[in-house]
Each structure stands twice: as structure tokens, then as C-alpha cells.
């Protein structure tokens, strides 16, 4: 993959394959969390949501593997219920209406993102989460035609590619972050955004970094890009908070 291809790619699976072992487990897990949060409305069962939240907490060292395994087990049980409902078409409508079960691929995505907690999360596992989340998003937005289903899936894949660019930045242009740029204002802004998952202050962070002497165009442009997506794991916020 070339730099131009990385910047334009809409296939998260190809991007993850290119990253290979450069992608650490925390970043991969936060990518999985981010794609699950994009289909939060599909995760109607609280066990699925708890699994995603636990995975995010585990990425930050806030819960141990025992808690994560427990949440994964609960989410897997929800996935099994949905799968069983899918097997028996005559029961499907009644079960979905009575229990408000989520689509199978949404349950599977939540289960997947919480799984693999006691062993290294292999690089192939992250695209699986993305594919399941894209399928769930397509299911939720599905119209009357196969074409509309496919269009939603493609749009979701493109959104996931943007998440990867936010988390991993541009691997062709690694940034050497000067510790002198970590002044109090920048640290406070970055910490607030990270904790709240609300990133509207990114342009203000750019100003704070620039005031501290940052002249790196990749850093400043990423913060000021009005079209950029930002999530926990954003490479600039992570650099400010020394999480990478």
C-alpha cells in the first residue's frame, strides 16, 4: 500500500493487513470499540453494551481480564440467542418483538471486541469486528432492495477506514512529538476530550500545541480538519497524553 492509497482507502481490512504488527493491541481494541459505538443503537441488549464498555476500560487498564472474560461470556450468550432466533424463521418476528433482540451481527461484533482477552489479539481479528459491525449497520438501515443494503455496508466500511486513520495516523509519516508541546492547556484539553469522548475542542488543541511551539503540519492539520473523525485512540490525543 502506498501513502496515497492509505489516505484514500475505504477498506479497513486492507488497511489493517498493511499495518500488521505495527498495530498494538490497545489500538486494535479501541478500533473495535469505536466501530461498535457506531452501531450502538443496534446493541439493544445491555450485556452487549457492557462488553464493549469493558473492552474500552481494559484498553486503559481499568478492568482486569477476569471482568473482560465475564462480559464477553454474557455478550456471547446474547449472540447465541439471536442466532437461535435466526434459525427458526417462524419464531424470529415474535422473539425480536418480545425481547427486542439485536441483529446477530451486532451481537457478534460486541462479543468479538470483548474476546481474546487472555492472549494477544491477532491482527486478523480486528477486521472481523469491522465486518460484523458493518453488516449490523446495513441490517439496521436496510431498505427494500439489496442495493440499499449494500450501499449502507459500503458507507460503514468507509467510516471505519476513517476511524483507522484517526487512530493510526499516517504510517508513512511518523511524528516525533516534542515533550515541550505538552503544556498544561494542551494536556487538560486532551484529557477532557479523551474522558468525555467529545472531540469538538480539537481545533483549540491545535492552537494550544502551536502556542507551545508545535510546527508539525500533520499534527495541526489533523486537529483542525473539520471533516476528520475523532475517537478514543486518536493519534494526536494519544501523543499528548503519552498513551503511545
Task: Pick out its properties.
single chain; 244 residues; mainly alpha; 2 domains
Count of spatially separate domains: 2
Query: How many DSSP helices?
Result: 13
Oligomer: single chain
Ends distance: 23 Å
Q: In percent, how helical is the residue content?
A: 55-70%
**What is the H/E string?**
HHHHHHHHHHHHH
Broad shape: globular
Structural class: mainly alpha
For the secondary structure, the number of strands is 0
How large is the radius of gyration?
19 Å
Structure summary:
With 244 residues, the chain is mainly α. 67% of the residues lie in helices and 0% in strands. The model is unreliable at 90-100 (pLDDT under 50).
Description of the molecule:
By secondary structure, the protein is an all-alpha fold. The two termini are 23 Å apart. The model is unreliable at 90-100 (pLDDT under 50). The protein contains 13 helices and no strands. It has helices spanning 3-8, 12-19, 25-38, 46-59, 65-87, 89-99, 104-114, 125-140, 146-168, 184-196, 202-211, 217-224, 235-240. The longest helix is centred in the first third of the chain and has 23 residues, at 65-87. It is 67% helix and 0% strand. It folds into two domains: 3-168, no CATH class; 179-240, no CATH class. The chain is globular, with a radius of gyration of 19 Å.
Topology:
Blueprint lengths: L2 H6 L3 H8 L5 H14 L7 H14 L5 H23 L1 H11 L4 H11 L10 H16 L5 H23 L15 H13 L5 H10 L5 H8 L10 H6 L4
Helix pairs in contact: 3-4, 3-7, 3-8, 3-9, 4-5, 4-7, 5-7, 7-8, 8-9, 10-11, 11-12
Amino acid at each position: 500500500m502506498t501513502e496515497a492509497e492509505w489516505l484514500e482507502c475505504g477498506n479497513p481490512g486492507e488497511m489493517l493487513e498493511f499495518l500488521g504488527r505495527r498495530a498494538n493491541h490497545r489500538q486494535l481494541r479501541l478500533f473495535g470499540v469505536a466501530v461498535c459505538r457506531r452501531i450502538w443503537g443496534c446493541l439493544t441488549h445491555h450485556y452487549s453494551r457492557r462488553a464493549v464498555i469493558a473492552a474500552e476500560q481494559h484498553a486503559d487498564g481499568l478492568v482486569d481480564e477476569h471482568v473482560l472474560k465475564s462480559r464477553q461470556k454474557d455478550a456471547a450468550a446474547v449472540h447465541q440467542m439471536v442466532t437461535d432466533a435466526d434459525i427458526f424463521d417462524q419464531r424470529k418476528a415474535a422473539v425480536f418483538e418480545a425481547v427486542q433482540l439485536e441483529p446477530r451481527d451486532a451481537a457478534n461484533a460486541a462479543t468479538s471486541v470483548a474476546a481474546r482477552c487472555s492472549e494477544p489479539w491477532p491482527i486478523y481479528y480486528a477486521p472481523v469486528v469491522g465486518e460484523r459491525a458493518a453488516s449490523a449497520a446495513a441490517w439496521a438501515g436496510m431498505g427494500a432492495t439489496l442495493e440499499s443494503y449494500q450501499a449502507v455496508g459500503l458507507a460503514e466500511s468507509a467510516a471505519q477506514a476513517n476511524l483507522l486513520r484517526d487512530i493510526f495516523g499516517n504510517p508513512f509519516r511518523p511524528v516525533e512529538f516534542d515533550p515541550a508541546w505538552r503544556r498544561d492547556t494542551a494536556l487538560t484539553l486532551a484529557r477532557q476530550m479523551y474522558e468525555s469522548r467529545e472531540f469538538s475542542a480539537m481545533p483549540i488543541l491545535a492552537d494550544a500545541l502551536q502556542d507551545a511551539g508545535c510546527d508539525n503540519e500533520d499534527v495541526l492539520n489533523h486537529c483542525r480538519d473539520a471533516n476528520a473523525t475523532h475517537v478514543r485512540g486518536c493519534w494526536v490525543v494519544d501523543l499528548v497524553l503519552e498513551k503511545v
